[in-house]
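This part of the workshop introduces the protein records we will be handling. A record pairs a protein's sequence with a compact description of its fold. Comparing a sequence with its tokens is the quickest way to learn the format. The record below serves as our worked example for the rest of this section:
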Amino acid sequence: MFSGIVEETGKVVRLEKDRENLHITLQCSFARQLSTDQSVAHNGVCLTVVRQEEDTYTVTAIRETLEKSNLGLLNEGDEVNLERSMKMDSFLDGHLVQGHVDQTAECVRVEEAEGSWYYTFAYEPAQEDYIIVEKGSISVNGVSLTVVNARENTFQVAIIPYTWEVTNFHAIRIGTMVNLEFDVIGKYISRIVRQQLAGMTKGLKDK
């Protein structure tokens, strides 16, 4: 479990293809503190540390992860948003993020607003339960953000200078693909409501 508060960006230093898997080696300031089997979110994707060497560590992304996220688009030298798993006795500064990316979205607009930035993303919902509501929570590349200007297939987020500098938002351009994790509470509520409506409809037909 994560909070969506990115600690820092890590640098991709090596990519190794292994059949349908991708081994990703990254360099970051807390690499020496990591141990194998530890969970770290990478652009919002929860991956397990499989190897640690000095100031680098390696994680493995399987085909399912590569298909649902932007990790398969990584190149050596790219910046990746990193967050270690949340401690239960710490403050929850963002929102509950599982590290299970639902799908990707494309950046279609970037607007500077006198010191802050508005990013617009377009997406086609992969499932009916993937919903966005105005002022609701959304994880974009692992960053906990508040939705503004929610539309049917687009939404905006506002980025303050600190977030722009600390995360890889400063590298996002028009056409950049980002990872989305929709609010887990919203997904459950949406599924429950749909199931109840389906049950009601079936009951009416049976009468």
Remarks:
- The chain has two domains: 8-84, 103-192.
